[in-house]
Amino acid sequence: MLILDHLSKTYADGTRALADISLTVRAGEIVALIGGSGCGKTTLLRLIAGLDRASAGGIHLDGEGIAGPHPGVGIVFQEPRLLPWLSVADNVAFGLAALPRAERRARVAHALERVGLAEHAGRWPRDLSGGQQQRVAIARAFVAAPKVLLLDEPFSALDALTRAGLHRHLLALWEESRPTVLLVTHDVAEAVALADRAVVLRPKPGRIDDTIPLPLSRPRQPSSPGSEAAARTILASLDRSLRPEGAADRAKPDASALWW
Amino acid sequence: MAAAAAVPAARRPLRLPGGRMLVGLVLPVGLALGWEAAVRAGWAQGRLVPPPSRVLATLWGLAASGELWTHVLASLTRVAAGFGFGALAGILVGALTGTLPPVRRLIDPSLQALRAIPSIAWVPLFILWFGIFEASKITLIAVGVFFPVYLGVAGAIAGVDRKLVEVGRVFRLSRLALARRILLPAVLPATLVALRTGLGLGFMFVAAAELLGASEGLGYLLLDGQQLGKPDQIVAAILAFAALGKLCDAVLVGLTQPLARWQDTARESL
Ligand SMILES: Nc1ncnc2c1ncn2[C@@H]1O[C@H](COP(=O)(O)OP(=O)(O)O)[C@@H](O)[C@H]1O
Ligand SMILES: [Mg+2]
After folding, report:
1. Is A38 touching ligand 1 by the criterion CB < 6 Å?
2. Which Gene3D superfamilies match (chain A) (predicted)?
């Protein structure tokens, strides 16, 4: 279980990126963090990954406090961040240096198989498309078998078709070990396609505005009535979160939700 | 359609990569042959500017007598020693200032100031300190090699992508593992370019050092040709310098290129 306990982050320049974030994610749950840009989504993931220190509050994974990079936490950044001097297979194996060679090989081959890149194992990252590179990054994170996997808008730079394919690859990998997943996105459809719960954030400073459960069965169809209803609920909530505090709710959330 | 296809076909011979290189040879080879013909026909004397045949004959003579190899070996040994010391120092100091900001603040300003001194200006001091023999020459070459290598390595380390370093942090690499698995490969291409620049400067300074006083070496051959009024020997020594420099550069590239084959740009700039 991952517990975020009254987390706050104020950067050195005084920017209040996060204020009093509390969230409990049970093991194996997929949570989508949704919010406009600048509401602290990346900051939150960096705190959980141990890359930055919180100004206040704590993070606990299965009862253990997290203050730095933790073996149970993996992250996929917004950019693939592959090491250009390593082959695809060696990139996936990057975090497995401590394992015996044979096991490392087997794990890497299996993960590449799962993301559909088995035949690209020996290529350079520069020879892959953006979507393929992001798949390698996902495989690199999964192969280390983290308890918590953080994904920071991993598909935002890709076209809708590629994105749908990657959602399938991601769920296939998740099915195997069922890690807890925190997925940052600004795409409502993505949240509905993947998550068990959507958490809507509100900017300046970043706070949790609303939590929407998504109790839909998998595999999910984006056009099913359940998915569409869930998407509408999230959109309405997002729209509210983007309005200044205290402003009266307007009657037509859908129309104004289109701009962001 | 047919006409459009025919035009490139007719031009194709000129487009071959080999053909392009041959075009570059037209001017020097043409000039050399022209000069040769002019001297043979008696239109020019060729005393101060010897014709190619005489230069090649001199070069051949020097090679056959073994003299050329003595000089090549002397120059090569000096460059190797100077490049070895200079490059090693450049890499070490560059790595220190690149990774440790306090060290950079302490010594980088002094090094930048020293860099502003033309290296040849050190010669009198080096001769006083190290004598007129090998030590002063090798020191001069090492100083010439040091600065481009130092600047290249320090700049490469400063320019390492923070985002890739974070990948290492996420996987909890130790400082040593981070240096070995991320910093080192990331700075390698720029370091190789810096080493190449350093090697080129090493050859520049070996010529200078030998011109300033030596009893063997290609630079000595140059000076000897001047003092004896033998321009063919001077040109022969210049040709030998060019060939040696090019050869050493090719060896350096050949040895190091596999290390940077992952990088498109490195391949182009090497
Ligand atoms: N290193 C930093 N220093 C100062 N301010 C930062 C830094 N990183 C992010 N911020 C600020 O914190 C806020 C949240 O940023 P971020 O977490 O990147 O948002 P998001 O990922 O939701 O778009 C923004 O206002 C941003 O300008
Ligand atoms: Mg972000």
Report:
1. yes
2. P-loop containing nucleotide triphosphate hydrolases
Taking the mean position of all CA atoms in its chain, how far away is CA B231? Answer: 25
How many CB atoms are located within 10 Å of the residue A21 CB? 25
As for the ipTM of the complex, it is: 0.86
The separation between the first and the last C-alpha atoms of chain B, rounded to the nearest angstrom, is: 41
**Tens of pLDDT, residues A90-101:** 999 999 888 899
φ, ψ at A64 (rounded to 5°): -100, 130
Is the CB of residue A97 less than 8 Å from the CB of residue A63? no
- Please judge whether B163 and A71 are an interchain contact, meaning their C-beta atoms are less than 8 angstroms apart: no
Kindly determine whether residue B171 and residue A69, on different chains, have CB atoms separated by under 8 Å: yes
Instruction: Report residue B110 as tokens.
Output: 């002094």
d(CA B232, CA B222): 10
Residue B202 confidence class, pLDDT cut points 50, 70, 90: very high
Residue among B165, B170, B172, B188 with most chain A CBs within 10 A, to mutate: B170
Torsional sign, CA B166, B171, B175, B177: negative
Set of chain B residues whose Cβ sits within 8 Å of the Cβ of A79: 163
Structural domains of chain A in order of their starting residue, each with its CATH number: 1-71+146-161+178-244 (3.40.50.300), 84-144 (no CATH)
Distance in Å, alpha carbon of A81 to nearest chain B alpha carbon: 6
Q: How far apart are CA B83 and CA B206, in angstroms?
A: 10
Lowest mean pLDDT among A7-16, A199-208, B5-14, B259-268: B5-14
B177 to chain A, any CB pair closer than 8 A? The answer is yes
CB–CB contact A95 B264 (8 Å): no
Q: Is the CB of A78 under 6 A from ligand 1?
A: no
Bridge partners of A184, per DSSP, are A33, A152
pTM of the model: 0.78
